[in-house]
Specification:
2 copies of one chain form a homodimer. With about 240 residues, chain A is of the alpha+beta class. Chain A folds into 2 domains: about 90 residues, Pseudouridine synthase I, catalytic domain, N-terminal subdomain (Alpha-Beta Plaits, 2-Layer Sandwich), CATH 3.30.70.580; about 140 residues, 2-Layer Sandwich (Alpha-Beta Plaits). Chain A is built from 5 helices and 10 strands, in the order βαββαβββαβββααβ. In chain A, strands 1, 2, 3, 4, 5, 6, 7, 8, 9 and 10 form a 10-stranded mixed sheet that branches. In chain A, β2 and β3 form a beta hairpin. In chain A, α1 crosses α2 and α3 packs across α4. The longest helix of chain A is centred in the first third of the chain and has 13 residues.
Chain lengths: ~240, ~240
């Protein structure tokens, strides 16, 4: 028996997200299939976190077990031979039986990429959110700092969310600008469903002048999903890195 | 009557190249259609050069005439509204009646992008040539300088080429390396059909140790297409810039 930790990169465009769902093509589903094809065994794949349909990953982490031990570099190469071009194994290693990709994650970084210029390059299409209206990036930079620390994110998660404790601690929340490219970086141990995209949607409202930085506090206190901004489109979002 | 110069960026993946061809979707064809839709007039579009099926452009230049004068910034915006996402108008201006996108070009730069690492990122797929075998980049850097100057490129053009004078002057021929990314830059006033891809195919043979830098001279002298390397795949090639 051996346990493996795998780092993956994927373009989420063609998939219904990470998590296995009936009759839908998902990244977890394709990875499980690939491991089973390569090993000839049945297995389960556990990911560090779920990414939504259309969301990308520069580095997602998952684990799985196999009865038979396979040399990690051979296994990685074989998986890349079976997986489609938009899902790639970057690293693969054998880990201790105790390792758990989801429960052991200490910190996750997400990035949201916005292109705030008039003409979107064909080479960026599907990989950023194209916002035509000129954003007040300084206001967004000011507002985004209000997310740092411990807050109840009820107003920033899908109203259908069944998670009881909606308190999360945000370690870092920053906006960088380089020419027309605006990028939002956020780090926490974990995030609620749609939480990052709802935070970005709210920051975009700040950038458009429809909300102010001070409104963030009122939205936190309200616990009301309707007061925060709309869910930002998935194609701008990247799971960047997971620390263990 | 007004004449317009337009700068375009496109991802060539979905197209049968620049030039209008019956029953095929081409960039020239879509641009002509877009101009006709927006203006309500019939027109012709003349490009600085043809790019092959699957080849990209960071900046292609073309001209066309219209009876009716339209404000360039309005025309540019309207064209981007009609063109598909993978063809974008970057700049548009009114030019003198004498301007000719092809005949007036003084210098063109092409770039060929190679990824020479084990795992190709999903975010680069279709936008570089993935060469798995480790290339001797120093040998390629040495060999590529042999292309500079005036040479007869008979051995480096499609054997079906009907162009009489196959002499071309190469202003610049360089290879840059950054990590696993290898990029070939070449500049000339004009290129023959498949010429850049055949030059790259030959440099790849040098990188693989199947040809040496000295062979380049012998290939020039032979005028024999079969002695040069195979045509490199289109997805690595970019028309970068045209000087007037």
């Amino acid at each position: 028996m051996a346990k493996y930790k795998v780092s993956l990169q994927y373009a989420g465009t063609r998939y219904a997200g990470w998590q296995i769902q009936k009759n839908l093509t998902t990244i977890q589903g394709l990875l499980k299939q690939a491991v089973e094809t390569v090993s000839g065994e049945r297995t389960n794949v556990v990911g560090a976190g779920r990414t939504d349909a259309g969301v990308h990953a520069l580095e997602q982490v998952a684990h799985f077990r196999l009865e038979k031990r396979i040399l990690p570099k051979h296994l990685a190469r074989a998986l890349n031979g079976v997986l489609p071009w938009d899902i790639r194994v970057l690293k693969l290693s054998e880990v201790a039986e105790q390792f758990h990709a989801q429960r052991d994650a200490l910190r996750k970084r997400y990035e949201y990429r916005i292109y705030n210029g008039p003409v979107l390059s064909p080479f960026r299409y599907g990989f950023v959110y194209h916002c035509l209206r000129k954003l007040d990036v300084a206001a967004m930079q000011h507002a985004c700092r209000f997310f740092e620390g411990v807050h109840d994110f009820s107003a920033f998660t899908a109203s259908s969310s069944k998670v009881e404790n909606k308190k999360r601690k945000i370690f870092l929340s920053r906006i960088k600008k380089k020419g027309h490219a605006v990028s939002y970086l956020v780090e926490a141990q974990g995030f609620l469903h749609h939480m990052v995209r709802n935070m970005v949607g709210t920051l975009l409202e700040v950038g458009r002048g429809r909300l102010s930085a001070d409104d963030i506090h009122a939205i936190f206190r309200s616990h009301d999903r309707r007061l925060a901004g709309p869910t930002a489109p998935p194609q701008g979002l990247y799971l960047v890195k997971i620390w263990y």
